[in-house]
Write a structure and sequence with these properties.
single chain, alpha/beta, eight-stranded mixed β-sheet, 30% helix
Length: 276
């Protein structure tokens, strides 16, 4: 697999990928869960509980990508940044990149310095990526650069969410701050990716699991919080219908088209759609 890292600028070093302990999977530095049997089934069940959510988003990346591909006469070239194990099924030529080894990744690349020529892609996907980069504005600038003049970008980024992936978690964005980040793109659609109730469930887990330093206590309370999160997340069925819920979203999405114009901040603040 090609390691296309700018060694001088990246927090990752090329040498890091030459050792047996090179970055693997979504945990960066930790191999995939090796447990089997009852413990493995338990851990997978806990993971499914953690990932459970009530989605009321107006648009998701699969539908946006499908509609975009269906409207094109030729197969579009799609770049997926921070791909992990995610794969998309559409009539497109996909290029999967990440900073970690994973099945199906075509190249190791840091989004701060994308190793592609200007105007290479028709569509760029960045799901749960921008919180993990040191300079989000620079990454979005790189996305703008590698897109064709009529190219599209779809991004999902956390707003109210605890730290995940440890030291590789840097930033959060309000809904309006997320729109400003993409100010060189004309908005097609934006909104809630994860609702306020999901954000509350994450916070509850942080509170309960940190009441005592004991590892066993933390594990038990984390499971309790996950079980409690199921009814809590049901509230998102109602909450996301109200404009004010955007102010407390767990995560937001932006879908836009590349443009030459940069939207000024005075215009950005008129785009606020929350309930404040």
């Amino acid at each position: 697999m090609p390691i296309l890292i700018n060694d001088e600028n990246s927090v990752f070093a090329i040498d890091d990928y030459r050792s047996a302990g090179a970055y693997q999977g979504v945990s960066y530095g930790e191999a995939s869960d090796p447990h089997g049997g009852l413990r493995g089934r338990y851990r997978r069940a806990v993971h499914r509980l953690a990932e459970y959510e009530i989605s009321r988003r107006t648009l998701d990346v699969e539908r946006a990508l499908h509609d975009f591909c269906a409207a094109r006469a030729e197969r579009p070239r799609v770049l997926v940044i921070g791909a992990g194990n995610c794969r998309y099924q559409d009539a497109a030529e996909f290029h999967y990149t990440d900073v970690a080894f994973s099945d199906g990744v075509n190249a190791i690349a840091d989004a701060h310095d994308l190793p592609f020529a200007d105007g290479t892609f028709d569509f760029v996907i960045a799901i749960a990526v921008l919180e993990h980069v040191a300079d989000p504005a620079r990454v979005v600038g790189e996305v703008w650069r590698v897109l064709k003049p009529d190219g599209r970008v779809f991004a999902e980024t956390p707003f109210l969410q605890p730290v995940h992936m440890g030291a590789y978690d840097f930033t959060r964005f309000t809904p309006l701050g997320h729109q400003r980040l993409f100010r060189r793109f004309s908005e097609i659609e934006s909104g809630i990716a994860r609702g306020p109730a999901a954000a509350s469930a994450w916070s509850l887990k942080m509170v309960l699991s940190n009441l005592h330093p004991s590892r066993r206590f933390r594990s038990v309370m984390s499971l309790v919080a996950l079980l409690l999160s199921i009814p809590i997340k049901q509230l998102d069925r109602m909450l996301v219908r109200n404009a004010g819920s955007l102010d407390g979203a767990g995560g937001v999405f932006f879908y836009g088209a590349r443009q030459e114009r940069t939207i000024p901040d005075r215009e950005i603040i008129t785009l606020y759609r929350g309930g404040f």
